[in-house]
Structure formats: C-alpha cells, structure tokens
Amino acid sequence: MNEHFQPPMRKKRDDEPFQRLREMVDQFFDEKPIRKMFETLDEYFHETFSRSYIPIDIHETAAEYVITAYLPNVNRQQIQLEFHEKVLQLTVYSDETLETTDEQKQIYKKRRMHHRTTRSIPLPYPVTEKEIQASFENGELVIRLPQKKKYIDIN
C-alpha cells in the first residue's frame, strides 16, 4: 500500500449540534438580572477578600533577616505589631464611615465598617523583643532581625 492514511476532513457547518445550545447559554449569561447578580458577587468577593491579605517579602543577608509587609493606604496608627515567642503578629485595623446625603445636605444613609486583618509571621530562630526593629514608610513596614544563622565557608 503506497497510499498514506488521511483522516477524514471535518466539514465546517453552521448547524453544529451544540451551536444552538452555546447561543442559548451565552444569551442566558448576557441577560441583565444574571449579569447584575455576577457583578454583585464579584464586588462582594473583592470587598471581602481584598482587605484580608497582607503581602510580605522575606529575605536575609549575612547580617540580618528582613521582613517587608506591603500596606498601601494604611496609616502608622492602624498598624499593631506583637511578638509572641517565635511569631510576629501583624494586625491592621481600619474604620470607615460612608455617608450618603441628599440635596439639602442631610444624611439619609450612614454605614460604618470595621476591618481587622491579621497575619502571623513565624520567625526562623528565637530572638528577644529588643532585637526586633520595625519602621514604616511609604506604605512599607520593614522588620529587621539580627542574623543568627552561622554560615560555613566551603573550600
């Protein structure tokens, strides 16, 4: 047999079996009530979980162990740092008041929100409270510990 096998070519047709089903599903999700529901869910999850995470970077040098927490839109007064044995507890508090007024400048809707976000940061080795240094500037909390690891040179 000198002939090579050729798989059958699929014909492009507009009337594929699931084409109508795809159109119906697309139409369903484009309907205003359903779209609004998804937008509301997106907004809820964004508001709920965007404030509940404190991103940090950790790096170490021969002289120190450095933890950097990124806290944009946070004031120094909103930050609390606690030390418990081998764990640092970083807590950010925020109080927010939203008011809606009418044309006569009278408040007809007032909403207060209190948020507390906490992150526990395990330390790599025991330190004393006096050895921990922390500074806050431009939305970055920098925590410095002295390096206690002993590095051995390899020849």
Secondary-structure map with pairings?
Elements (H helix, E strand, L loop, with lengths): L18 H12 L1 H19 L5 E5 L3 E7 L8 E6 L2 E15 L5 E16 L10 E5 L2 E7 L9
What would the keywords be for this entry?
155 residues, alpha+beta, three-stranded antiparallel sheet, 2 helices, 39% strand, flat, Small_HSP, HSP20-like_chaperone, Hsp20/alpha crystallin family protein, A-crystallin/Hsp20_dom
Biggest sheet character: 4 strands, antiparallel
- Give the rounded overall mean pLDDT: 80
Per DSSP, the total helix count is: 2
Low-confidence blocks of residues: none
Explained architecture:
Strands 1-2-7-6 form a 4-stranded antiparallel beta sheet, with no helix packed on it. The radius of gyration is 28 Å and the shape is flat. The protein is of the alpha+beta class and 155 residues long. It has helices spanning 19-30, 32-50; strands at 56-60, 64-70, 79-84, 87-101, 107-122, 133-137, 140-146. The chain contains 2 helices and 7 strands. Helix content is 20%, strand content 39%. The termini are far apart.
Please outline what is shown here.
By secondary structure, this protein is α+β, with helices and mostly antiparallel strands. The chain has two helices and seven strands, in the order H-H-E-E-E-E-E-E-E.
